[in-house]
Amino acid sequence: MVLGRDPHDLDASVRALLFTRASAQLGRVAVDQVLRAAAEALAAGHGGPALVRLAARWPHDPLDETIVMLDDALRELGLATTEMVEDDAVVFVCRAVSDAFLDGRLSGLDFATVGYDLTAWRGPDEFMGLDAQLIEHRNGTGPSPDVVAFAQNWLDEHADPSHRWRPTGSPTPGNTTH
Question: CB of 67 within 8 A of CB of 34?
């Protein structure tokens, strides 16, 4: 998955690595997804021994070992994700799927389903009822304006947590402004 909007200047390949790490925190990632993100980061010009070792793993290698190596590769990039908490992982993944929906890379139904699956356990579900709005809008063109507004509001109300994974004073990994 290539991720969009970035308030912290992380390029898409670094954000894809963070997305796989956040997904792993939520128990929603497979080894091949991690390896694909690592290969994309290498192709984007990021490198270091840990990232190279990660990209070279087999898809059938144990997930827990792969996640440890992912943390090592992210640490090489200036991101400390070993202390990632579940709430931050949920916000990061939901922001990514909101971006993907708003950019047209994810269907409205998939957006609602992923959002509901990730947030229902947290209390009153913000995504409840989006399915009905999407179904009602299927005969129209494009996504429901209400769902688009919901996705944009969700992004506005939930700050990107990736700044928490940067040690104080570390350079911005994958900064596209240099």
Answer: yes
The C-alpha atoms of residue 158 and residue 95 are separated, in whole angstroms, by: 8
Q: Of 81, 155, 104, 83, which is closest to residue 2 (Cα–Cα)?
A: 104
Identify the burial level of 30 via C-beta atoms within 10 angstroms of its C-beta, where 0-12 means exposed, 13-18 middle and 19 or more buried: middle
* Chain segment 33-66, per-residue pLDDT in tens: 999 999 999 999 998 999 999 999 999 999 999 9
Residue at 106: amino acid letter: L
Sign of the CA dihedral 74, 79, 82, 88?
negative
Task: Give the per-residue pLDDT at 3.
Answer: 38
Enumerate the H helices of 60-174 as residue ranges.
63-76, 86-102, 108-119, 130-137, 145-157
Token pair, residue 40, equals 């994309």
- Please name the amino acid found at residue 68: V
